[in-house]
Amino acid sequence: MTKLYDYNPLVTIKSGSRTGSPFFCIPGAGASAFSLLELALSFPPSLPVYALQSRGLADPKLPPHSSVNVMARDYIQAIRQIQPTGPYHLLGHSFGGWVAFEIALQLLEQGEQITDLILIDTEAPDPQGCKSKSFGRIETLMELIKIYNMILNQPLPLTRKDFEEQSESEQLQYLYQELIRSGLFTTHSSISLLQGIVQVMQANLNTCYTPHTHYNGLVHLINAKEEDMQETQGHITRWKTHVTQLNTMLAPGNHMTMLSMPNVKTFIDALWSKQG
Fold first, then answer.
1. C-alpha radius of gyration, the chain, whole number
2. What is the separation, in whole angstroms, between the first and last Cα of the chain?
3. Tens digit of pLDDT for each residue in 52-101?
4. Which of 46, 57, 165, 227 could form a disulfide with 196 if both were Cys (CB 3.0 to 4.6 A apart)?
5. Taking every annotated instance into account, which residue ranges of this chain make up the domain Thioesterase TesA-like (predicted)?
């Protein structure tokens, strides 16, 4: 049986020159470091980029985190292995934005400095929304399919009914075969990979988060142009209750395609020009 202390969240996406301060990036719910590859390649070539990958993703025998605060604490331990002291550069996509935000709060409390905090299409924490969170197995599968359909030209033709009469292992096998058919998975992809994705995503979807304090600094919030603008404006308004300074930007694409070329380079270049 795999032990918890065997788990290391750090994944090197881009080594860079290792002379500058690295970016530490947290993928979205159920996502791997690979989801941020094109984002990492959009940064200057000399910049090292690391991802922090969820427990239970690569090894489904490990239980996923169920608390943003604990996840952030564990990630900080891993971050300090690479960079013992600040200033730090942090980025998170979707659910990963909550984790990045909490990492920043905890590092500030530990006397460190944060140079960059970038949140990509991250919903604002909403304590009221926590009360209604109840994602079962099929709800999780449907959310995952919705994510996959954002990046597929030909959407997966799957509905709730396809899974309702199946056991969990049958559900996994059925979705696995459909993902191979779509080209998202190859025949060499292990079904345990999908098992890890599903269990982590379900844990993330059911995780509530309320920041314990205000963030006294600048936060960059990048939203996708193809998402509902009324919802986006609501998230911006709520984020303003948690931060001192909020810089907002719209990026081409949807929640997932905004992470791919050429969309991702558009907002990374824009952020970099602001820094310059």
1. 18
2. 49
3. 999 999 999 999 999 999 999 999 999 999 999 989 999 999 999 999 99
4. 57
5. 24-268
